[in-house]
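QA checklist item 7 of 12: single-chain prediction sanity check.
[x] sequence parsed
[x] length recorded as 269
[x] structure emitted
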Amino acid sequence: MVAETYKPVAPQWKQRQEAAGAPSTNRNINDIYWRKRDGWITTGPNAQLGVDGKPLTAQSDTKRRLGWEPLIQYSFTDRVSDKTGQHDTIEITQDRLNTPDKFYWFFVNGGAHLFPIEQIVAYHWHITPPFGLPKTVFPQLDEYDVPLPHYCPACAPGAPIKNAPGEVVQHMVVQHQMNLQQIRILEDQTNGFLDKPVGAAGLAIRRKVAVIERDASERIATPVRQEPSLPICNECGNLIEGTDGFAKARHNKTYHKPAEEMVPGGEEG
């Protein structure tokens, strides 16, 4: 069960926070999780209170003033501080807070139900929850209709999914440098980008797209030269000089005179 992996909130922390004005003995100023005003969960400076009852860091005081809510109870790790004997909160390097893994301890501590549905969909967790967790970790999914996954037919299987056809189109224009005509053809072939590439089929589609792109590039780089058509006389095979409407008449008068105009011996009169 997922619940068995949850780490309990350190009771000492809760006792200290509930004791109004009690001095804090835990000087850990690592990062913690925060809930922004729009409900999204993120990381930020520790909001622990000092002996004066104020946050230990000016940054956390600013976050509070902006309406952010500190979620310290979901921020503890399994590491114990040598100085305080208490569990440390998340740390930027050890807990990879600059990577998609930054929410590990938030899930471990049972905070999955706090994520807004918009954040779940934006991270595509409604399709594949992180850390191998089942979708049931998000009770929010029972309350909302979430978008179907859309796939880029020019990517290999396993590539990140998209939430809407428009996201796929933008991705194909930017990443694959495809034009709209090429994109519409692939959209029709993949049921509006809903068909998931599987195995070799996905790779074959990518190769086909590459051929289309290469051919298009060659046509642009080396346009076909159109040679001008030359007027040739069908009777004598000579070139008809001139391009105006009288060129054929002048040619006939010079090379195809009537017999009565010719003098004996082949000389002209």
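[x] summary fact logged: The chain has two domains: 2-142, 165-221.
[ ] second reviewer sign-off
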